[in-house]
Amino acid sequence: MKIDIDLRMAARLNKNDGDARAYVLGNGRKTGNEYLYAYDLITAKVLATHTDGKSNAVGTPNYLEFWLIDKERKIVVHHNHPNNASPSISDVMSVSSYSGIDAAFIHDHDGSFYKMQPLQRGNIEKATKAMSKAARIASRSSDFASLSDSEYAWLIGVSRVSALSKAGCIMLTSNVVMSENIEKMTELMTVAAIQSIK
Known about the structure:
The chain has 198 residues and is α+β, with helices and mostly antiparallel strands. The protein is built from six helices and six strands.
C-alpha cells in the first residue's frame, strides 16, 4: 500500500517541536528504537528525553508522569515509530488519560507525523471502543480484503485518529494524505464514534 506524505508540513513545526522531532527521529534512525521527548509548552523547558531500548514501545518515565497528570500543565510529548506505524490505541489513550498533555506527536521514520490535541478527553475512550467494533465488522468487507495484516493495522490507526478528529474528540494535524481506503474506514469509524458520545 502506497502512503502519500506531504513532507513540507514538517518544516512548519515550531523550534521546540522541531528539536523534539530531530531528537526522536535522529536517535530512532540510529538505533531502531523508540524515543520520547517532552517539554513544557509554557516555559519551553525540556522535561524528559527517554528510551526503553525497544523498537516497538517507549514508556513514560515516573518523574514525567507527575507532570502529565497535572491538569494545570501544558506538556507536549513526542515519540517515534521506527516501523512507521500509525498511532496506536495506547498513543490515543495517553492523550485521553493524561490531563497535562496539550499535544502528542508521533513521528514515523518515513517522514509522516501525527499531532493529536485533546478536545473532549472524556469521550476519547468511549469513542475508541465503539470504533474498534466498527473496524472488526469492516474487516470482513471486500473493500479491505486485499490489504495485508500490517497494512490493515496501519489503516485502522490512521482512520481511528481521523475519526476522533471528525467526531470532535481531538484536533488532528498530519501530513498523511487521505487515500480512498482511509476515507472509507474513517467514515465508518466516525459514525460509530459520534453515536457512542451522543
